[in-house]
Amino acid sequence: MFLPKEGNNMRILRIFLLHVQHIFEYRSRSLIWFFISLLNPLMLLLFWKGAILQNNGAGTTLPYITSYYLLLVVAGAFLTAHVEEDVSEIDIHEGHLSQYLIRPFSYFWFKFFEEIPYRLLQGLYGVIVCAIFFSFFGQLFVFVTDPFQLFLCVIITLLAYFLSFYFKMVLGILAFWIQDIRGLYQVIEIVMLIFAGFLVPLELLPPAVSHLSFIMPFAYMIYFPVVSFQGKLPLDTMLHVIELQCLWLVLFVAIYQIMWRKGIQKFTAAGQ
Amino acid sequence: MRRYLRIYKMLLHLNFASLVAYRANFVNSLISSIAWAAFSLFSVILLTGRTPNVYGWSRNEIILLTGSYNIIVGIFHMVFSRNFQRFSTIVHYGRLDSILTKPLDSQFLLSFWLVAYTSVIRVCMGIAINIYILTAMGLQYSVLDIMFFILMMLLGIMLLYSLWLFVITLTIWFTRLSNLVDLLYTMNGVTRYPPKMVNEAGNFFSYILIPFTFVVAPPTRLLLQKALSGEIIGLAVLSISFFILSRLFFRYALKFYTSASN
């Protein structure tokens, strides 16, 4: 990966701290965003509760489903970067990109460290919800216990974040070529809802759909971090997941680099 | 009243003109309407794949609920949603003065300014789903039944409108919370589940969601010829009382509006 150079470390810290201040200024807004990400998984959880109780298990168990959707809340809040609309609308279409281009700093890493405080705060809300839930219904919770597995979970989660961030940046800079891109974003959001595991745990989908979801990159952004934290994945599967995540990541980094180089030549901004 | 109808006709014309003028925007809205309607159908098919019966609703009945959801929410998005989005932005930027000073009802101006024609496609998809399922179930209807269904649907839309107005009015005090609209979009999704699911959750937060469960389920139960009089009366009472309350609340809130001196 293209890590920032040594001397930039202080600047990274500054960008980070500036945006930490920003999110605390807007914490009530962040809380609403968190409620939004909480509502759908909770509805689905209630739906499954009824389905399991009235249909003899429906091929799964309540503890599995409960911990799946709760961890999904944390994963959704922590791992879904919402950077694409800023990049496409504000930076590329409105021309604010030129501000970044004249700074001695890579645009990508600027965006990266801008986003992290938001993800940390959202993730924190998620952890709090899980903790409250755990204190009430500990017996309904399945969680990884082995320390080495936990270590692998952390690796999978980090890779998932990089994967999701690179993917969203690629979507963002598509705006160099496509003028009005919101329709495409909506379609991708829907594809992600199904194939990243937001709707139903992927292994409970009909076999064909489930198979398709493991070929696509989205499962490696959300679903695998969730199930690995549940402690349901055997060690060799976890290592295999990490392998595939690395493959996807290399692919996305390459696509981003190529698109960025081509796109930046097309970019024009007036009167900034 | 006639004056307002004339103005709304004019607004319909203007919105149509801007629809035709901005083609890329039109294509994008069309794509997203179709995509969300398709998603609501796929998601319910995938969710009910292993479950013939949930909270007293069979698989077909839940798909019918999704069809009705697309009709009701489609109409709601066509007429109202974007106006509420505009409402919160207007308050956020302190531009409400220009609306309050106009010689028209400000609630009317805030609620009906924009029309999202592309949502029609979503309504059509909802109707298609319903016709398919009802034919498969072999149910028969008279004209009167259909009229009654439409009436119930209108009451559902009125209830949804009032709930949105209630929540969005809060932005007059909390101007930063313009993302309450996004919360409401998500809360709309609650209406496509069986009401019993929310009622039985027995949690403080789920009580807030109970009014939403009255929007789509009672009209759908009517289609299934299973509606209880309690549901129908409940919807009528809720929708009329919420409509009046939300209007009063909106007017009360306007007293606290502090403008950014336009």
Write a brief caption for the model.
The complex is a heterodimer of chains A (272) and B (262). Chain A is mainly alpha-helical and 272 residues long.
Fold and architecture overview:
The complex is a heterodimer of chains A (272) and B (262). Helix content of chain A is 73%, strand content 0%. Chain A has helices at 9-25, 27-54, 62-79, 84-93, 97-101, 107-137, 147-173, 182-195, 207-215, 223-229, 235-266. Chain A starts with 8 loop residues before the first helix and ends in a 6-residue tail after the last helix. Helices cover 74% and strands 2% of the residues of chain B. Chain B has helices spanning 2-21, 23-47, 59-92, 97-100, 106-112, 120-137, 143-169, 180-188, 195-199, 204-223, 229-254; strands at residues 53-54, 57-58. A two-stranded antiparallel sheet of chain B has the order 1-2. In chain B, α3 (59-92) packs antiparallel against α6, α7 (143-169) runs parallel beside α11 and α10 (204-223) crosses α11 (229-254). Chain B starts with a helix and ends in an 8-residue tail after the last helix. Classes of the chains: A mainly alpha (272), B mainly alpha (262). At the A-B interface, α2 and α8 of A face α2, β1, α8 and α9 of B.
Salient structural properties:
heterodimer; A: 272 residues; mainly alpha; B: 262 residues; two-stranded antiparallel ribbon; 11 helices; 2 strands; globular
Blueprint of the fold:
The complex is a heterodimer of chains A (about 270) and B (about 260).
Chain A: H1 9-25, H2 27-54, H3 62-79, H4 84-93, H5 97-101, H6 107-137, H7 147-173, H8 182-195, H9 207-215, H10 223-229, H11 235-266
Chain B: H1 2-21, H2 23-47, E1 53-54, E2 57-58, H3 59-92, H4 97-100, H5 106-112, H6 120-137, H7 143-169, H8 180-188, H9 195-199, H10 204-223, H11 229-254
Antiparallel strand pairs in B: 1-2
Helix pairs in contact in B: 2-3, 2-6, 3-6, 3-7, 3-8, 3-10, 7-8, 7-10, 7-11, 10-11
**Molecular shape of chain A:** globular
| Number of separate helices of chain B | 11
User: What is the quaternary state of this protein?
Assistant: heterodimer
- Helix residue percentage of chain B: over 70%
As a percent range, the share of helical residues of chain A equals over 70%
Separation, N- and C-terminal Cα atoms of chain B = 30 Å
Classify the secondary structure makeup of chain A into a structural class.
mainly alpha
Q: Tell me the major beta sheet of chain A.
A: none
